[in-house]
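> Could you send the Diaminopimelate epimerase prediction when you get a chance?

Sure thing. Input:
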Amino acid sequence: MEFTKGHGTGNDFVLLPDPDGQLDLTPELVAALCDRRRGIGADGVLRVVRAAKHPDGAGLAGEAEWFMDYWNADGSFAEMCGNGARVFVRYLLDTGLATPAGAALPVATRAGVVRALVEGDVVSVEMRRPQVYDSSAATLGGLTLTGAVVDVGNPHLVCVLPAGVDLSALDLTVAPGFDPTVFPSGVNVEFIVAGDPVDGTDEHTVMRVYERGSAETLSCGTGACAVGTVALRDAGRDTGVVAVDVPGGRLTVTVTADSCWLSGPAVLVATGELNPTTLRP
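Output:
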């Protein structure tokens, strides 16, 4: 089995080329691939398959040639992954499966079609505008933190830390608690504080995230979009540009009237072959 390893601001993925949808990809194999000691190690798996060849992408084949079949590190599915989409596009271009064009490159996902633009090392993807709903709460280490419920094609809970709570000191080795009646399929929980002003942006936010199915990650693209939208809302703005610092680097979120652009570096770091039979439990 061929593979490529890539990441976007430290949010890392194993990419599996499978144009015709022939790989026997199972939750057990995905979890084994993502194991950082016995496998390759990653926050998730991106299967690169033609939309027409995957049942979840076939309905979008008229809009996009390629479908991003994204799996969390524990072998579960996710509707969308912003950094994954950016790394996916880098792979399509670097392997010649797609060619740069003046127009944005469409990619099919379980959350619909996203568009991507590439400028040097920076890959930007346009996704749906995040929808902010009522509040809910997360519990962590004896803290109960109120947060905004946000839909970015996948569920998020954005919690602004109160004064006196150190973002870097949060223990995210344990999953935050949440209300399962609000999030029956689980939720990505973001913890944020305001950052110092950054030139060219309207707001600056510093974030850590616990992703469902992957635990704490160095970055989360859809989480950054959720955080950027909440930061703008709290500042009394409907649109704008937000710098979002994550442990793995900096992402830029641009919220428009009808969409959200996520921008940042996306790199491929290794290619190789693996024997899947050695990874199975």
